[in-house]
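Let's practice the habit of predicting before peeking. Look at the sequence and jot down your guess about where helices and strands might fall. Then scroll down.
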Amino acid sequence: MWYIGGMPRKTDARERAIATAEQLFRIQGYTATGLTQILEESGAPKGSFYFHFPRGKTQLAEEAIDQYVGRRMTVLRNISANTAGDARSFIRQLFDTFGAEMVATDFQFGCLMQNLANELPALDPELTARVARGFVDSTEIVAQHFRQCGFSPARAAATAAALVAALEGARTIARLERTPAVFGSLARVCTDSWGAPEPPSHGAQG
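Done guessing? Here is the structure:
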């Protein structure tokens, strides 16, 4: 799962700063996370921080977003490959995977992109654009899977958008309730309705 990557080596201050920032942004958001906390929790030397991140917290957030989105897309591609041609299994595994992540992180980690999107007034235009691209690019992987299952392009795009929205909303509810039950409920409701085969098209009658 994408929240698991192992902490970088102790000597790798740059990677430790990025990993720590990502975790803190996922737990408490962008605005509430200060550079002092990131440096203290990562153990990164303050003197080298601006060497690695000359634009400060904004640049650090950009790199955290890029790494998070990259791992998220890898997870989605792996689930797609494991359920090739099977829309129902794909949907079920997505809900199972997101729910398992919530349990493994003790319901602390939200979606980095969702957390930052909720703080758009506090973000600069480049961060906003990065978050938007992250959703677009990862949602396209979901839509591509549905197209490969025989969905029309329009249905694949609509189903992917609805599924991503459901997954992100479920994360919020799971964090509040401290239970993954909502993922199971959504999986049961959505698997059959959203994963049903594309109905046959009927040509014009002669």
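How did you do? The chain has a mean pLDDT of 90.
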